[in-house]
Write a structure and sequence with these properties.
Layout: H1 3-15, E1 18-19, H2 20-29, H3 35-38, H4 51-54, H5 56-72, E2 79-84, H6 90-98, H7 103-108, E3 109-114, H8 118-127, E4 134-136, E5 147-152, E6 161-166, E7 169-178, E8 181-186, E9 204-207, H9 209-225, E10 227-234, E11 246-249, E12 252-254, E13 264-266, H10 271-279, E14 284-290, H11 291-298, H12 300-309, H13 313-327, E15 336-343
Helix pairs in contact: 5-6, 9-10, 12-13
C-alpha cells in the first residue's frame, strides 16, 4: 500500500468507512501525496490529454470568445480574466496569443488563476512569463470590474458523492478496507437528500457539492460585476443518474481504489445542476451545447484551414487529426459540452447559435 493509502487506511480503522467524497478529495488534492501535487497528468507521457494540449486551436478560439465578450461588455478599461484549474497554462497562453489582435483587451486584462497545486502553479508561471497573473487557492472576491472566466476540465476533477438506490432509499457509497485493499460499501442508513430523483433499485445518483458551490460563487461574481463564464467539460446535458466515477492512468482505465493519488479520478459533470444553480441567481445560461458544435461556431474549420496553408504534409496530417479529436462525435466532440453563464451583457456570447 502506498503512503496515502496508509493514511486513509489508518483513518478508516480509527473512525470507520469514509465517503467517496473524502477519498477522492485526498487522492486528488492531498498536499503531499495527492495526484495533482505529485504526478505529471498531461500529454502523451502523462495520464490523459486535454483539449488545449491536443491543439493550439482550442485555446486560440477561446481567446477570441473572450475578446468578443469584452467587446460586448463595452470594452472595459479593466476586467478580471479568470481561469479555474489552468493545468500547464497552455489554454491561457494560446488564448492570450490570439487576443494580441486586440491590444486594448490585453492591456485591460488582470489575469487571475485559481490553482491549488503548487507544482502546476510553477508550470503556469513559466508558460505565462510575459504576463503578471495572480494565483488563488479558491475563486476570490473580485470587485470593481467585469469578469470573464474560463474553466476547461476543472469541474470533472472535483470530488463527488455517490448514492445507490437500495430498498427504495438512497444510501451513500463509502470506502472501507477489507484485508489490505480498499473496497466500496454502503451506508446502512438512507441519506436524507433534498432534491434527489426517484431511483430504481441499484441506480446510482451522483452530486458534486464543490461544483455547485463554485458555480454559485461564479454566479454571484457575475451578478455583482457583470461578465461571462465559459465552462467546458464532459458529461451529459441533463442526466443525473449513472455511475461515472473513473480512474485513468497512462491513458487507460484503472481501479480507482488501488494506489490512491497515483491515478486521475474524475466524474461526469452534471450540467443540469450547474445550470439550475446559475439560473436561481438570475444568471443567463447558454447551452450546454456539444464541444464540436461550439468550436465549429467559433470558426475552428477556418482556423484549421489557415494553419494548414503554411504546413508541410506531416504537419497537415497532424492538424487534421487534432481537428478530428476536438470535434468528431467519436472523440471529444459530443461527450464534451460547453455552457456559458453571463450577466449584464446586451448581446449573448458566441458559440451557442441563436
Ligand atoms: C484536469 S486538469 C485541467 C487542466 C487544464 N484546464 C486543461 O484543460 O488542460 C484540472 C486542473 O484543475 C486544478 N484543480 C483541481 N481541483 C482544484 C481545486 N479544488 N481548486 C483549484 N484547482 C484545482 C488541477 O490542479 C488542474 O490544474
Amino acid at each position: 500500500m502506498n503512503e496515502l493509502g496508509k493514511i486513509l487506511a489508518a483513518e478508516i480503522e480509527k473512525s470507520g468507512p469514509i465517503s467517496l467524497y473524502d477519498y477522492m478529495k485526498s487522492a486528488l488534492g492531498h498536499p503531499e501525496y495527492g495526484y495533482y501535487s505529485r504526478q505529471e497528468p498531461f500529454g502523451e507521457q502523462g495520464d490523459f490529454i486535454t483539449a488545449p494540449e491536443i491543439s493550439q486551436m482550442f485555446g486560440e478560439l477561446i481567446g477570441l470568445w473572450a475578446v468578443d465578450v469584452w467587446f460586448k461588455l463595452g470594452s472595459p478599461k479593466k476586467f478580471h480574466l479568470v481561469e479555474l484549474g489552468p493545468g500547464n497554462g497552455t489554454l491561457m497562453t494560446d488564448a492570450l496569443r490570439s487576443a494580441r489582435v486586440v491590444p486594448d483587451f490585453l492591456a485591460a486584462a488582470q489575469i487571475e488563476l485559481v490553482e491549488n497545486s503548487r507544482r502546476l502553479r510553477s508550470k503556469q508561471a513559466e508558460a505565462l512569463s510575459g504576463f503578471t497573473p495572480s494565483w488563488h487557492d479558491e475563486l476570490p472576491e473580485l470587485e470593481g470590474a467585469p469578469v470573464i472566466l474560463i474553466a476547461n476540465e476543472f469541474f470533472d476533477a472535483l470530488p463527488i458523492r455517490q448514492y445507490c438506490c437500495q430498498d427504495g432509499g438512497w444510501h451513500e457509497r463509502l470506502v472501507t478496507i477489507t484485508g489490505n485493499e480498499f473496497t466500496f460499501t454502503l451506508s446502512p442508513e438512507p441519506a436524507s437528500l433534498e432534491s434527489a430523483p426517484v431511483g430504481a433499485e441499484r441506480d446510482v445518483y451522483e452530486i458534486c457539492p464543490d461544483g455547485e458551490v463554485i458555480t454559485d460563487r461564479i454566479s454571484k461574481l457575475l451578478a455583482a460585476n457583470g461578465g461571462a463564464a465559459l465552462i467546458i467539460d464532459y458529461g451529459a446535458t441533463d442526466t443525473l443518474l449513472g455511475d461515472s466515477f473513473q480512474a485513468v492512468k497512462g491513458h487507460g482505465p484503472v481501479d480507482p481504489l488501488s494506489n490512491p493519488g497515483e491515478a486521475d479520478l474524475t466524474a461526469h459533470v452534471k450540467f443540469v445542476t450547474l445550470k439550475n444553480v446559475a439560473a436561481s441567481r438570475d444568471i443567463a445560461v447558454q447551452g450546454p451545447t456539444t464541444q464540436g458544435r461550439f468550436l465549429e461556431r467559433l470558426g475552428i474549420e477556418a482556423r484549421h484551414h489557415m494553419l494548414r496553408q503554411k504546413a508541410d504534409k506531416a504537419q497537415s496530417k497532424k492538424l487534421d487529426s487534432q481537428l478530428r479529436r476536438l470535434t468528431s462525435a467519436a472523440e471529444m466532440g459530443t461527450l464534451f459540452k460547453a455552457m456559458a453563464l453571463s450577466h449584464n451583457m446586451p448581446v449573448a456570447t458566441e458559440g451557442f447559435g441563436s
